Amino acid sequence: MLDAQETKAPPSLLYMVKQVELVVRSHLDELVKPSGITALQYTALTVLQRHDGLSAAQLARDSFVTAQSIADLVRSLETRGLVRRERNPHNRRELLILLTDPARELLARHEGPVRELEERMVRDLTTHQTEQFRQALSRAWHALS
Description:
mainly alpha; two-stranded antiparallel sheet; globular
């Protein structure tokens, strides 16, 4: 006879993805808290590190936040001297958001601990499984984008 545990369906993939996101955000918040920023602010800074000079709309999309949230986030980072805004030379109505040197230094300080967090997340996976995981996540994101 099967007991109740054996007949339960496994959690949905959406639920599991959310669990991973929440635990990663929690650990990331703890890592960056000494620098006075949040995980969301850190994410925005890393987006700018890869693609400096984005519009607020582009930064919001790439940082997974709303336009309203990005406005507050950028204002906070600008007040801290971590980003600056300047007019787009190709579209004078648009402001581009750029990293400052203090932001680059902050990102460099956190590079090792963040890499260790990522390594901890996949430590029970082989190199091949980790690459498959990365590819699966990318395909899942593209399927929903």
